[in-house]
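Notes to self after the call with IL:
- keep both proteins in one doc
- input above output, always
- annotate only the second one for now

Protein 1:
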Amino acid sequence: MESHKKELQDAGFTGKIDDSSVTRDEYSHDASMFELVPQVVIFPKDSEDVKRAVNYVRESKKKHNHHISLTARAAGTDMSGGAINQSVLMDMTEHFNRIFEVDSKSAHVQPGVFYRDFEVETLKHNALMPSFPASRDLCTVGGMVAN
């Protein structure tokens, strides 16, 4: 198995990078019946880390690893396997969970915001997001948008 940890660190990634078997196994599942074990799970601290991860994957594809991919993941409630991969998995729930602004017609939130927290804010404005998933107590806004 190829290790991406050092290369990501060399690329300036400042968030947590975890290639332990425990974490890789934990992130190999979503709510689907599929199982794909990632090589590494990363937790970007900010948008610069996201850019670094995207650039790392892009450059790796050019240089030597045509099979590398990057999948953004939040709560992992997707039932089609969209929250798993066999390469680099990027968890958005740890640092990308801020609600910036909500009013009766729009909202500005990060992808790792749990819907249950988002709904508390929308109800203050007598508003609901049009999508109302069965996993609403567990899913994130980013996952809802991705689906």
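Protein 2 (the one to annotate):
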Amino acid sequence: MTQVVQCDACGGRVVYDAGREAARCLFCGSVALHADEGHEAILRPDVMLPFEISRKIADQHYRRWARSSWWYPKPLRQLTIELSELQLPAWRFDASLETHWAGLVRAATRSGARPRAGVEHAELTCQVPASMGLREAELSALQPFDEGIAVRFDEGVPHEIPALSERAASEQARRRLQAEHRHKIMQAHRLQRCNCSTSMRIRGARLLMVPIYIGSFRYRDRPWRFVINGQTGKITGRAPLDRTKLAVVIGLAVAVLLLWLWLGSTGA
């Protein structure tokens, strides 16, 4: 048996096992949670992607991430963090694009450029998070997910309830796909500037659940979180910086600057 828990701070709605006590929001760490007894229609995902790595392996990825920067504080590596499994909703769109473009390339002319124009076709895909808790940049950073091993969605697993309709998600997808195609064209033709007119046809859309491990912690009374791809172990997140190291580096930089200024003034 499951229940829906909603966060009053970020709006995330997560389905848990009814016997589990949800003390904090997985996304923002807030304790302002309540059981959601709403009965409005809920979008049902088409499929879900299974986890490919264990929680133990995911924790090892976290430890490597925590040691990946000299700027991270030492306590970050020693924190005991509970990783939570979660199926996250995302819309997957497949689209055909035709882009008419005109731009400038470098050339040995008086202006240093000459015009070029053309038409490019592309078959592109993108995923748009249907989540209140995870940002688009985080989902992009976790890519790719292997959709070839999709299985039937199980309502009993912990998952976030989809918060974005297909129509709303398709508007975001169109903007992203247009921008992606423009970027590809500019790179392929080494354009300095580029004006584009794009015709797009969405060939397919489906709502799927992607597997993530999510962990949160508090450091200096501030919440932090990181997210791990449950198939590949790829990790994204923001970590606190060591204030002592920052102070030392800034102090050294100021001392060097003052010494340089003093030497310059005495030399004059």
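Annotation: Residues 79 and 238 are 15 Å apart (CA to CA). The longest helix spans residues 243-267.
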